[in-house]
Design brief:
268 residues, two-stranded parallel ribbon, two-stranded antiparallel sheet, globular
Length: 268
Amino acid sequence: FGSSAWSSSFDRSLGAMEALSHILNPWQVPLPLWCAAVVAKELALQGMDGAVSFFGRYIEPLPSRKGPKPIQHRPMDHKDFLYLAINAVIETVFVGHLLHYVWFSPKIERSLGSLGFLNGAISLYFVVIFNDMLYAPMHRLLHTPMLYKWIHKHHHRVMYPHRGNVDARNEHPVEQIMAMGLWYSAVQLATTCVGMHAIVIPLHIMIMVVCACFNHTGCDLSFNCFGIGFSVRAHEMHHRKPNKNFGQLCMWFDKLMGTYTPYALDAK
């Protein structure tokens, strides 16, 4: 009996380890290649952040950055660098799962000839909307006292974001995992509603990265794309007035929740 129980426990442990391996490494590549993927993802992010910084030079700064008195920015500390390093791994795992889904899922169209308006442009639009629809309430939940203290407060140590992707990704790893889970859910929702072509995923990743970078700069960028009104001002107001403007790319769901506030230079 003892030997049988030990064997059963060992089998369960092996099963758990195998499941964890597939979560962390969905493509089951060798460790050196997995580490190379982390590096490649970081290089791609830095490249997009560099492009944001370059084009940001030609964009008017936010009103809060034009005053005669310069804004005092908080310097980075050891916790910032630790969280950024952990989040770099989480992001790589998440992107690996997204690409695995694109490559293997029977729900995804992959041939060029199968790309259409519905599974292309409309699907991309739905992913953007569904992602904010799920993220905004979760973000608001993170501002409840207990969750804010232990998870989300770290991100709000910066009142006036200016470092682009560094400030955007500088959050508690638990928050990062929650956001990535909702992003994956948004992809599944869009696929269920209108189908999806493989091109939608990399396009949405680019949109999210570029907009997150701009949201954490001092650039006064705003645009409206088929009703989605993106504005860096809205996200700066969230950092200055944390109980408002929980959305990422649009304020639709803040208006539904009654948490939207327009830009005000003297907001407290």
